[in-house]
Amino acid sequence: MDPLNPPSIPAPVAQARGLVKRYDGRTVVDHIDLTVQPGECFGLLGPNGAGKTTTLRMLLGLTPPDGGTLSVLGEPIPERAREARRRLGIVPQFDTLDPDFTVRENLHTYADYFGLKGQVRRERVEELLRFASLESRREAPITALSGGMKRRLTLARALINRPELVVLDEPTTGLDPQARHHIWQCLRGLLRGGTTLILTTHYMEEAERLCDRLAIIDQGRVVAQGSPQALIRAHIEPHVLELNGPAAMAWLEAQAEDLSARLWRMGDLALIYTLQAAPLTAALEQASIRYLHRPANLEDVFMKLTGHELRD
Amino acid sequence: MPAYPLPRLSLRFIPVWRRNLRVWRKIMVPSILGNFGEPVLYLLAFGYGFGRLVGDLGELPYMVFLASGIVCSSAMYTASFEGMYSAYTRMSEQKTWDGMLGAPLNLDDIVLGEIVWAATKALFSGGAILLVAAVLGLVSDLRALLALPVILLAGFCFGACAMIVTAVSRSYDFFLYYFTLAVTPMLLLSGVFFPLEQLPGAVVALAWILPLVHVVEIVRPLLTGAWPNQVVLHLSVMLVYGLVGLAVATRLLRKRLMC
Predict the structure, then answer these.
(1) ipTM value
(2) Which of A28, B2, B90, B242 measures 20 to 30 Å from B134, CA to CA?
(3) Domain limits of chain A?
């Protein structure tokens, strides 16, 4: 055994160095560095158009980068993307289920793409129908499925090859709360089984619930990286007071410089970020102003780092 | 991907082909009826209706002449339709290709699989007409079976050309240009309905640049009990159209989809 390379440091599942992508002279991914460790859930957060999907497409070998180096599951990308894709699963942002087939046939055909045959394929398809709770809909056409069922089937399809890594692009966008919780439960199950996950989302509670570590991306750059808790600690005061309505705004105006806390306002909504909530809540109680006191969360970090203006 | 200017050929195209076969099998009955129904109508309407007026062409009764032509033209139509309307639907409407790209399949495998599938459908429809022609007594001998691999190659050639059109199309409307400017002229100028020699020399020269006439030149003798001439030349033209079509379509589609 090589004493300089102890086996206790596992090789990263995915690694990007100085990743660049340009479209028509516009830089959409601007020197991104990422390292994803085995068994973790790694999140890519960012407003629409931040470069999340482009980064994922490069990781999967579906878009050639304009600069930087990339490896996934030890394979250089895009040169050996086929070999990498053999061992990973993809849940795309928009369903690409095959409308010419039933639920079961979709899994069956996808298994064929991975070279699964005969008994092994039949067993894996049955297993995944159970996993996705779609046994009773096995012969249903895709058009007859609800949004949640389609997502579950897409996730099941991505697992056909027992992947070491699953890449999910906005896995729960557009789903109702029950369906989202079901998907989250499935993903936590995968993590318990040792599968590595990379996901993009703009749902902060999704990132906070699932991700061990995440990178916040804005305008093609990583603006912050770490665990959700560490990011909150590093960037935001622990207490947040939310005020709204004309009375609260008038009270705020009156405080002026006396307010020893960071303040953010938009219209008649105000957020006060503070290390110590007690003096403020006392003053608000005294003035009979309604307020909401909550701990700082990832959304506060996200809004602080990526700005509050609308993105398109 | 400038590192690989040519298509990277691999047997991985087979699952793509098998996927299309599986869909076809689900609607097999209407597909097969269509394969038989239309050529029978053509043969009966043109052959009996028109053939009465024309009589014999050289030594061939018009029905026999026509049957061997329609075998070829239907291969062209079937492969062109499959390579355009059906492949385009799978590429951009149904996102079937995107799904495949999530598996260990490359775009090159998908393009090759689609073209081979278009060739397979050409074989189905050309074979169906051959069967009808045989039943009607319009085929001379077992040499006709040798026409089947030629039809398959013709289907590959027309499927590959159609895939180039698919690669540059932004909507279904675009396909009409190709039908109007390429497929229909080929149909009329390649000796399917009447002997090529009836046309002016310049038109004949043009027809020989296009692939369909080469298909007819091999298939017609095989169906009428003769051996074709210049087989290597005719097969080479089909093969070149097919391979160049595959290479160009692959390049264009990589540029369109892997960006």
Answers:
(1) 0.90
(2) B242
(3) 14-227, 237-295
Contact assessment for residue B155 and residue B75, using Cβ atoms and an 8 Å cutoff: yes
Domain A14-227: which CATH number of 1.25.40.20, 3.40.50.300, 3.40.1190.10, 3.30.160.20 = 3.40.50.300
Per residue in B98-119, pLDDT (tens digit) is 999 999 999 999 999 999 999 9
Structural element, H or E, at residue A205: helix A204-210
- Probe site for chain B from A26, A93, A109, A117 (most B CB atoms < 10 A): A109
Number of H helices, E strands in chain B: 13, 2
Q: Could you tell me the sign of the dihedral formed by the alpha carbons of A279, A282, A287, A293, in that order? A: positive
Q: E strands along chain B, which residues?
A: 56-57, 60-61
Q: Which of B13, B17, B23, B86 to mutate to test the interface with A (most CBs of A within 10 A)?
A: B23
**Residue ranges of chain B whose CB lies within 8 Å of a chain A CB:** 1, 3, 15, 18-19, 22-23, 26, 94-96, 98-106, 258-259
What's the rounded Cα separation, in Å, for the pair B142 and B223?
8
pLDDT tens-digit map of A3-26: 555 556 678 999 999 999 999 989
Rounded CA gap, A138 and A149, in Å? 11
- The model's pTM: 0.91
Delimit the domains of chain B by residue range. Answer: 13-257
Q: Give B35's Cβ-side CA count (13 Å radius).
A: 23
Residue B134 token pair: 């045989």
